[in-house]
Amino acid sequence: MRCVPTLRSDPHRFLGFVSILLAVLLAAGCAKNPVTGKREFSLVSQDDELAMGREGHQAIVAEYGIYEDPAVTAYVDSVGRRLAAVSHLPNIEWHFTVLDDPVVNAFALPGGYVYITRGILAYLNSESQLAGVLGHEIGHVTARHSAKQVSQQKLAGLGLGVATVFSKTFSRYSQAAQQGLGLLFLKYGRDDENQADQIGVDYSAKSGYDPRTIPDTYAMLARVSEGSGGERLPSYLSSHPDPGDRQQRTTQLAAAATGNRTDLVIGKAPHLAHLEGLVFGSNPALGYFEGARYIHPAIGFEITFPAGWESGDKKTAVVSVAPGEKAMMQLTLAQGEATSPTAFVTSLQSAGKIAGANGRSETINGLPAWVGRLQVAGQDGAPVTLAAAFMQAPHRSGGEKLLFQILGKSAQPGDADEQAILTSARSFKRVTDPTLLNVKPDRVDVVTLPKTGSIGVVVPDLGPQAIDLEQTAILNHKQVGDAVEAGTQLKIVKPGRKP
Fold first, then answer.
1. How far apart, in whole angstroms, are the C-alpha atoms of residue 8 and residue 478?
2. Burial of 444 (0-12, 13-18, 19+ CB in 10 A)
3. Do 122 and 280 touch, CB atoms closer than 8 A?
4. Residues 242-273 as b or e (16 or more Cβ within 10 Å = b)
5. What is the value of pTM for the model shown?
6. How far apart, in whole angstroms, are the C-alpha atoms of residue 356 and residue 178?
7. CA distances (Å), 293 to each of 51, 57, 302, 310, 436, in order?
8. Are 406 and 317 in contact, with CB atoms under 8 Å apart?
């Protein structure tokens, strides 16, 4: 059985192609696809997939965080395991994780790791729609689509890079973890998306969920994607592009999978019950921007980044990038223990983690600090000079002392961008103002309508809300002019508390 691609149009080129790949193919060979049963060319072994999933999972949790709500976690896990039990790989160790991220997305890593953001969870209207999304992601795993992506990247000699200006924040992870993170920013092809749609519909029906709600999910996602942008993760339709006529095709697939069955679960009320109180949008308690000023209430610090730079935060890092990407800086918690910032720099030198350091101890806004330059080895082994600052400050909760690390890179040491990095570092300080610290996120509120009318009429009467009428309509898979009856349950978003 042929597993190697052919180049029929040019026999000489084909022979050259084979000679180049021969050593790789001898080590790789064919792998059986669990869904189709066919043997396929692959440069990724099952052990590779498990390593990418296991180590990638650790990196994803570190970067994006888990949504800490046991009831929501158990709910999603129960639906996922019900689907996994009827999948083509029921015996692998499946993991279903809700990420604390507002972006509307879901994705999977090889080896049985499936993720759904609280962002997309809020927009789903029923348990069967959740099953449809999770079934689609399980399908990507069982059909080995990620393994195919990695194999294609290796064949092209490109490697797996993270397509974002924040990619440098991932460099601390292992190769397997970086490959897992890199997969989040690659788009599946038309054939893979069609196959995952088919598999997701089949898994939903086989596990007792009604897949006829799936087309409405894609209609909602299309509306959400029109207003998306600037997210830390890709949006759903960015990483799962529409292969064409998706709503029509999934409608046909669902009809074929269900026939005249009337026993399939939709589960709107149970799903909405799990959404009550769900954090919606960015959580200001975990960090928020006011212009170039960044405040982190949970830990209790603030810093002002250079004006005009593009800044963004993750769970473990805040990154700011100059126009044209000619300079960047990153704020993280330093890894390791030290009695002072100066002692920490000394420990880096002693451990051989840096080639040299040139700086001095300072006091920054009452905090002990070290500011200067570090010499490190770049990816190609060439020396690289980084602007650096380390500050020690207590956690807001008291007691524990944290060591904050700012590393920056400009075109040349001493240039204006490096000065901007160091000026930003010296703006770091503790926050004590209750107005800045006592913030609360917006949350989903499930309400029962007291009267009949259109969305445009009944929703404004439901009290203060954090999103506009059109967004509320999308959240409920409605149009503003749609009529809704008294007694209907709707999702609205109650405003939290911000400065």
1. 52
2. buried
3. yes
4. ebeebeebbbebbeebbeeeeebbbbbeebbe
5. 0.82
6. 27
7. 39, 31, 7, 12, 12
8. no
Sheet containing 367-377: give its strands across.
Answer: 310-313, 318-321, 328-333, 401-409, 383-394, 367-377, 356-364
| Percent of residues in the chain assigned helix, strand, coil, to nearest 5 | 40, 20, 35
Q: How many residues in the chain?
A: 499
Tell me the C-alpha distance between 259 and 257, whole Å. Answer: 6
Q: Which residue bears the tokens 């997969």?
A: 183
- Reduced 3-state DSSP string for 150-211: HHHHHHHCCCCCCCCCCHHHHCCCCHHHHHHHHHCCCCCCHHHHHHHHHHHHHHHHHCCECH
Which residue reads 């490697």 in tokens?
Answer: 159
Distance CA 89, CA 213 (A): 25
Which two tokens mark 51?
């390593």
Q: Are strands 453-454 and 483-484 parallel, antiparallel or unpaired?
A: antiparallel
pLDDT (tens digit, 9 = 90+) per residue, 431-490? 999 999 999 999 999 999 999 999 999 999 999 999 999 999 999 999 999 999 999 999
Helix and strand counts by DSSP (H, E) for the chain: 17, 21
Residues forming a β-bridge with 66: 99
Orientation angle between helical segments 46-64 and 145-156, nearest 10 degrees: 100
Q: What is the dihedral of CA 157, 163, 164, 169, to 10 degrees?
A: -50
Whether the Cβ atoms of residue 303 and residue 292 lie closer than 8 Å to each other: no
Contact 86, 203 (CB under 8 A): yes
The kind and range of the H/E element at 424 are helix 416-425
Residue 117 pairs in a beta bridge with: 99
Structure tokens at 42: 């692959």
Query: How far is C-alpha 71 from the geometric centre of its chain's CA atoms?
Result: 21
Closest CA to 374 of 351, 347, 345, 402: 345
Q: How far is the C-alpha of 166 from the C-alpha of 238, rounded, in Å? A: 17
DSSP per-residue letters across 6-73: --TT-HHHHHHHHHHHHHHHHHH-EEE-TTT--EEE-S--HHHHHHHHHHHHHHHHHHH-B---HHHH
Chain segment 371-408, per-residue pLDDT in tens = 999 998 876 778 899 999 999 999 988 768 899 999 99
